[in-house]
Amino acid sequence: MSGAMPMRPEYNSEAIQLRKRIAMLLSPGLLWLLVFFALPMFFVLRSSFDSFAGGVMTSDFTLQNYARIFTEPLYIQVLFKSLLTGLFVTVSCLVIGYPVAHLIARSTGKKRNLLLIGLVIPFWTSLVVRTYAWKLLLGTNGVVNYHLMQLGIIDTPLRMLFTTGAVVVGLVHVFLPFMILPLYASIEKLDASLEEASQDLGANAVQTFFKVTLPLTLPGVTTGCMLVFIMTVSSFLTPDLLGGAGNAMISNIIQSEFFGTFNWPFGSALAISFLLFSLLFVAVYNKFFNREQKG
Amino acid sequence: MTKFDVELDNVSKRFGEFTAVDNVNFKINKGEFFSLLGPSGCGKTTLMRMISGFEAPSEGTIRISGKDVTHDRPYERPTNLVFQHLALFPHLTIAENIAFGLRLKKLSNGEIDRRVDEMLELVRLPGLGNRKISQLSGGQKQRIAIARALVNRPAVLLLDEPLAALDLKLREQMQLELKRIQSEIGTTFIYVTHDQSEAITMSDVIAVVNKGKIEQMADATTIYEKPQSAFVANFIGETNLLEGEIASINGDATVVVVEGVPIKVKSVAGAHVGQKAHVSVRPEKIIFDAIDADSCNHFEAVIDNAIYMGNYTHYQMHLGQGLKLGIDVQNATHCERKSIGESVHIAWSADLGVLLPGEVQ
Ligand SMILES: Nc1ncnc2c1ncn2[C@@H]1O[C@H](COP(=O)(O)OP(=O)(O)OP(=O)(O)O)[C@@H](O)[C@H]1O
Ligand SMILES: [Mg+2]
Questions:
Q1: Chain A residues closer than 8 Å to B75 by CB
Q2: Prediction pTM value
Q3: Number of Cβ pairs closer than 8 Å across A and B?
Q4: Which domains are seen in chain A, by residue range?
Q5: Residue B329 in 3-state DSSP?
Q6: Which of B340, B343, B338, B339 is nearest to B320 (CA)?
Q7: What is the ipTM of this complex?
Q8: How far, in Å, CA of A11 to CA of A17, rounded?
Q9: Mean pLDDT across the stretch A66-72?
């Protein structure tokens, strides 16, 4: 014990060294965030209190923009619809992605590597190109309609493009890998003998899934759902290209305020409201699921 | 109804080209403590996985309580397996782990609670039901794994090296516990181990497995005293395995010449003069003595090494040109210990050696 006291100063200087190193390692990232994230966010926040009349922005401090969001039904509707789309896309990704993730996690060697590569190959192509491909597939004279007519199943082309359905299909396609990867990571960690133990104790495949596999892979489920939900709700390109005006989501509305009507203050207020709403949602979600996992 | 709980008929399992289990046959009586003993990789786990239904045999039939279960799913079989690495459910409490199988059978809550408590009592962990798995020690986890399997009242309980991860003291204690539990409930146990002393202390019947085949199946005494192959003699306990050639067979008396030394041993059927053979002599069967009877082997030897083991001393010695022998002598009273380089008389009765004709595979 007596040797412990003289050790302390040394230990302290080591701790300072360590803190210095951490600061050094972090500083490029922090600087980047400051210049390209925090500052612009501050300008957006500032401008959301400005006023806008007759095409002219005036530096001001008004809550008018925020009041408009909550009084004109359009914005609440779009917000609501975005959330609903997010929910739908997330659940679809989960249901489609889980079996795939399970298959990849439980295969071995070469097969697993091939499947994982297959999962990331889509990222080699630009999102714009992949979304245009859906336009070609779903359009009035698109591939799907053409074949349905050729086969005599329908007489007039189905309206598939510029529907909510097209947006959902497009978004599920884009975000599915973001669901599968975290699921894969947590299923892979799950000891396969736990699933066998469940079967040995009398549970069939379905019972084993709900009593053992799913509860033990919840961390992957919550991460995947969170990622997909947030990305869906804030998506811009897919609803723009596949949804058209009638299916605009929050980002499309914000964009049209900035570059359609040039009402930057109102666009900023929308952006800030949406950001706050997302943070609130994430906080609630985290609290709920962290408690679930601990208790 | 048959009196056998488990029957394997010509069961084989191949993984591609590799044969993990090779034409295994056995019948296990109801209530028996049956051990599968063998070195790592000999196919013990594969056998257990076939009996519990996780692996389908490439050939052969498996019957449990007279019913053919070869193609039944694991959850359709009246067996429960205690996994090599336990596989307790980390998201459930101890009571929930034990109740897992009972909930699936849709028993009433009262019945489930009663049986869970009964099991906790049986494995001597009463009142721990609400703890989490991570709050248990290794030995306690072991007991919960056994309770979780036994609570379902299986016809057969399969245990795959359940004590391998425990330290020696705890392992010995758990061996006694398991034996007590088995005699209290009378369930048939199939116990896998690669530890021969564990198999000897616990089993009614031991099947010694080597490279997917059963080498010998008998009670512990027979396996130890009358091994049927050099592999069994060598794998179970310590032995002097002396390799030579049969020089003469005279009724009950056979002589095997090992490195120029004639060794007398009891004859066995099927051996013939000129054949290669092994003689297995346990080190504790040889004594320091100068008896010169016809039915005895008697030699003069020089001590090479003496290792004090507490309750006994292990002597290494050589006789003649270089035939090496090891013998164990109890340190009974304050018996005089031999020293290195000393010349001694040793002897053992011919019928204490075991003649094993044929070469070792
Ligand atoms: N799924 C499998 N595919 C290919 N080979 C396998 C498979 N399972 C087991 N084997 C092989 O079969 C042999 C027997 O394996 P098994 O697990 O039954 O051994 P074991 O006797 O239980 O060994 P241990 O004492 O180390 O647990 C081993 O050589 C192993 O490599
Ligand atoms: Mg094994």
A1: 199-204
A2: 0.81
A3: 56
A4: 73-294 (1.10.3720.10)
A5: strand
A6: B343
A7: 0.83
A8: 10
A9: 92
